[in-house]
């Protein structure tokens, strides 16, 4: 190519700038405060992990600069200066310089020690709640399923109706939204019922694997109330990438209120003056269609996710249809949903899928993938396989049992599930 010299030079600069921009973009360095950024920690465990990352980075940077400078110095100082240098015999090989070699070994050992000290103390620190905080620890068991998370609250019991209609205590669990008291150390037992998953809340702690036949755990603390994004971080099958969850940290009083609300049996919507007239009037025409892979949540979760979550806790003042909700409650058994899902108080005790007693009060459904509103819930129960390919509800539920839902059925089920605040 016969290009003028300045053009070649110019295009070389452009190429370098583009490559640098590409590296910055690929490394995600523009979004250091994103919802899953480890550079914006909200608790002591994540902060310790970030500090360790920076220590390693700085040590590596010093080594890079020193080695790079020596290399550059040697390349410039001993470069071939003319035709004669280029064809000269290489100098005789020397054995080496003991002083230089010993100092290099010493420097390498020193830098490894500098990295090892915070690494070991960080491993020790993140292993379990510090002794002085043990008494204040709140314990929860998280279990991985393909592809969702179950959370058992070991120190709480919930109320449910036994077959004779008597109120009894039962274990209390929830799914995909881990609600914790802010400021307190949380000890989380990590379990799995199938394959290896990995539990990770980038701003709080992790990642630690959930291993079959092995009892792992981690601990974390959220500095203050907040709403955090979590993610399974170990490939666990075709829908691994959409196996997500949320962590909601609340102040002491709000956390207590939440626990009390969860312990109660399922909410019953009955005919009162404030509600609709009571015919099972289908409203399905209002549901919209979704494209595959369309984003599943609105920007209310970008603005103030904790407030968006709070808004889900209270039942709507108007617009609930008791007759339609009752129809949905019956369909929940008729369509065999109840053989996998628990709704305490409605007599449904399935344990294969997420507990749904208060599903209407969660901010997300389908393992943190979709916002929990009427449209997205309809999208989920209408075509679960489009949302989360290969999921158990589709394969072992819809397909295996030949479950077919009419638009009227879907509408009733959406109304029932949304009423479970
Ligand atoms: Cu579970 Cu990836």
> Mean pLDDT across all residues, rounded?
89
CA-based shape = elongated
List the ligand species: dinuclear copper ion
Largest sheet: 5 strands, mixed
Radius of gyration: 29 Å
Order of helices and strands: HHHHEEEEEEEEEEHHHHEEEEHHHH
Q: How much of the polypeptide forms β-strand, as a percent range?
A: 15-25%
Can you walk me through this structure?
Helix 2 packs antiparallel against helix 4. The longest helix has 34 residues. The protein has 421 residues and is α+β, with helices and mostly antiparallel strands. It contains twelve helices and 14 strands. The strands form four sheets. A five-stranded mixed beta sheet has the order 3-2-1-5-8. The protein has a five-stranded mixed beta sheet with strand order 4-10-9-6-7. The mean pLDDT is 89. Dinuclear copper ion binds next to loops.
